[in-house]
Specification:
It is built from 11 helices and 15 strands. With 337 residues, it is of the alpha/beta class. The chain has one domain: Ribokinase (UDP-N-acetylmuramoyl-L-alanine:D-glutamate ligase, 3-Layer(aba) Sandwich), CATH 3.40.1190. Strands 1, 4, 9, 10, 11, 12, 13, 14 and 15 form a 9-stranded mixed β-sheet that branches. Strands 3-2-7-8 form a 4-stranded mixed β-sheet. Strand 12 and strand 13 form a beta hairpin. Helix 1 packs across helix 9, helix 9 runs antiparallel to helix 10 and helix 10 packs across helix 11. The chain is globular, with a radius of gyration of 19 Å.
């Protein structure tokens, strides 16, 4: 079986229970999460062979993160145990009109010192069909950026499909820093997960033209990106926030020759973290064997994201049948097993 490989940081997640703020609690709920780790876990649950590449400290925290990944059948055999610190983030869950808050403590984590030459990427990529990375990973350090760019170059030479999720976080880097790095990797990208903000502001593909609505503007801006780079598809979601516990989502896909937009679906939320990663995993799940089924991939990705919001923790841990049954309850039955 051809595997899906992801590269990134898995972090220790600490959250006060019962929607409390940090100063109200003496207890923190513990789990692990991170963008590319979430994608690897979700795709493993969907039946794929996945490998996660990272660097973790050689202590109980690092080994507990390995145990977490192994419990979902993610291949961790090439993870390096080196360094002293694991990345940590504190999550205060929002409720009603109060939004969730995230505090990062990851500046000097073991992953920020990852080195390309310490991994056998020739072997790691040998039977890889798909490689996924995100902007969150690129934001962490110059050494991480150098390593990821080298891996992308090697993967491109081997004909591996490369997907990239902008996943911009202003707490991690500036728009200018993101622009400088992302323009270096876009020539290697086949599938892009992006918003209008990502393409217009971070990539810098702006326009002075006026439009009747947002859909017309998005189509115009996305066409610029598709014409500039060898990107097959741009996928994304649009979120409407009614409260911290009730949102709606729709999804879209663009190529040079078409666009498709789903309906908007409103839902309740248990845990919003990882919703975007679930969308990515749902899209990859459908495209990896049928690259032309972009509409089916968009639908399945959207509902994978929606149902993830009902699950505690960072990753969607449902099998395909559970997601399809959920789609059918909402009357969306275009995706088949």
């Amino acid at each position: 079986m051809n595997k899906i490989c992801t590269i990134g940081e898995i972090m220790l997640r600490l959250s006060p229970p019962f929607y409390n703020k940090i100063e109200q609690t003496n207890t923190l709920n513990v789990t692990y999460g991170g963008c590319e780790a979430n994608v690897a876990i979700s795709l493993a649950k969907l039946g794929h062979k996945t490998k996660f590449i990272t660097q973790l400290p050689n202590n109980q925290l690092g080994k507990s993160a390995l145990k977490h990944l192994r419990s979902y059948d993610v291949d961790v055999n090439d993870i390096k145990l080196k360094g002293d610190n694991i990345g940590i983030y504190f999550l205060e869950m929002g409720f009603g009109g109060r939004p969730s808050q995230v505090i990062y403590n990851r500046k000097h984590s073991a992953f920020t010192n990852i080195c390309y030459d310490e991994f056998d990427f020739e072997r790691i990529l040998k039977d890889t069909k798909w490689l996924h990375v995100s902007g969150i990973t690129l934001a962490l350090s110059e050494q991480v950026r150098e390593t990821v760019i080298k891996v992308l170059k090697e993967a491109k030479q081997k004909g591996i499909i490369i997907s990239f999720d902008f996943n911009y976080r202003k707490k991690l880097w500036t728009v200018e820093q993101a622009h400088h790095t992302i323009k270096k990797i876009l020539p290697y990208v086949d599938i892009c997960f992006a918003s209008l903000f990502d393409i217009e502001t971070i990539v810098g593909l702006k326009t002075t033209q006026s439009f009747n609505n947002l859909l017309e503007k998005r189509k115009h801006i996305f066409e610029q990106l598709l014409n500039k780079y060898s990107i097959a598809y741009i996928f994304g979601t649009v979120r409407q926030i009614y409260s911290s516990n009730e949102n709606s989502l729709s999804a879209y896909v663009y190529s040079k020759h078409m666009m498709y937009q789903t309906e908007d679906y409103r839902f309740n939320i248990v845990d919003r973290i990882g919703g975007g990663d679930a969308f990515v995993s749902g899209v990859i799940h459908k495209l990896i064997h049928h690259f032309d089924k972009y509409q089916e991939a968009t639908d399945f990705g959207l509902f994978t994201s929606i149902i993830k919001h009902t699950i505690q923790g960072d990753a969607c841990i449902l099998i395909e049948d559970e997601i399809i049954n959920f789609m059918n309850t909402l009357g969306k039955s275009t995706v088949q097993r």
